[in-house]
Amino acid sequence: MPSSIRGCDMSEADPVTRLDPGIPGADSLEAVALVAYESPAREKLRRFMRHRLAVVGAVVLFIVVMLALLAPLITQDPFRSDLSLVRQPPSAEHWLGGDLAGRDVWSRVIYGTRTSLIVGIAATAFYVTVGTLLGLVAGYAGGVVDQVLMRVADAIMSIPLLLIVVVFIAVIGPSLSSVIIVIGLLGWPAASRVVRGQTLALRESEFVIAARVAGARTGTILFRHILPNLLSTLIVVATLGVATSIVIEASLSFLGLGVRPPTPSLGIMVNEARSPTNLQNLPWLWVPPAVMIALTVLSVNFVGDGLRDAFDPRSAAAGKVTTTGGEA
């Protein structure tokens, strides 16, 4: 019996790598060998698919995104006001009824979801990019540069969220762009800390030392050697950051510090039904946007958990098997 099984094409006639069909259990050993040398991408996908909540979250998130993208085709004008629709309950023509201004609630929920997704994706992309650049510089340079950047991050994280938001919005005014900017300014310190920690570990790796000895420039080392090894971590950080940004946008809009009416926003829709009378007698005003916020955030969080498990290097060895044996 061969002493080891090496990754190869089992159809080849190499006596070292091809198992003799006459050997008991040869078929199962070949299957083990094929699983042992599964491609990294396929292995990550398999681990993600094993996370049932992540799969459900991915399906729900896909539906939500498609609804937001196809909003002009499947809904009415969210700004159109019809007096006959004021405070009207759900019906066959208007699935979620009408709001206090006679606007279709279904249309405003879908367009409000689009607003939330725009803010979530744009704000997360902004602060992940800034945090990644600053984290790479701080982790690789170390010393005074590291201390200055991290102390700035600590200072921003120590200031109460509401205080920063109120001051910022008071200066530039509430709008979609201001919400994206303020979330980005608040989010980059956490992302930079994650990237800095990974960079501190990678800068002492053999491949980084070899590149440095070979005369590679700092930019080349950071963006061609270190950054690719951080992509899995950044994907997870960005995914979970989208959910956080959506919650912050809804909260700011609820407080009147987010996007300006009549722009559709899920937070504004919940805020419009804040009176006890509306909460009790007009549930179609606030239940649909609240449910949409919860569904979107939960779906993104589940997908983020699945991606974290899929990219976790500690579980990468679980799918790899080394088979050894002695003489028969």
Defining traits:
mainly alpha; MetI-like fold; 14 helices; 66% helix; disordered N terminus; disordered C terminus
Model description:
It is a single chain. The chain has 14 helices and no strands. It is mainly α and 328 residues long. It has a single domain, classed as MetI-like (MetI-like fold), CATH 1.10.3720. The longest helix is centred in the middle third of the chain and has 37 residues. The protein is elongated. The relative contact order is 0.15.
* Total beta-strand segments: 0
As a percent range, the share of helical residues equals 55-70%
The overall pLDDT, averaged over residues, is 81
**Shape, principal axes of CA atoms:** elongated
Number of helices: 14
Q: Quote the CATH topology.
A: MetI-like fold
Query: Architecture, according to CATH?
Result: Orthogonal Bundle
What is the domain tally? 1
Q: Strand count, sense and closure of the main sheet? A: none
SS-derived structural category: mainly alpha
Q: In the CATH hierarchy, what is the class?
A: Mainly Alpha
Order of helices and strands: HHHHHHHHHHHHHH
As a percent range, the share of strand residues is under 5%
Distance between the ends: 6 Å
Rg result: 26 Å
Q: Which superfamily, in CATH terms, is the homologous superfamily? A: MetI-like
Low-confidence stretches: 1-26, 315-328
How is this structure best summarized?
The chain has 328 residues and is mostly helical.
SSE topology:
Layout: H1 26-36, H2 40-50, H3 52-69, H4 71-74, H5 105-141, H6 143-158, H7 161-172, H8 176-202, H9 206-213, H10 218-226, H11 231-254, H12 266-272, H13 276-281, H14 287-311
Helix pairs in contact: 2-14, 3-5, 3-14, 5-6, 5-8, 5-11, 5-14, 6-8, 7-8, 8-11, 9-10, 11-12, 11-14, 12-14
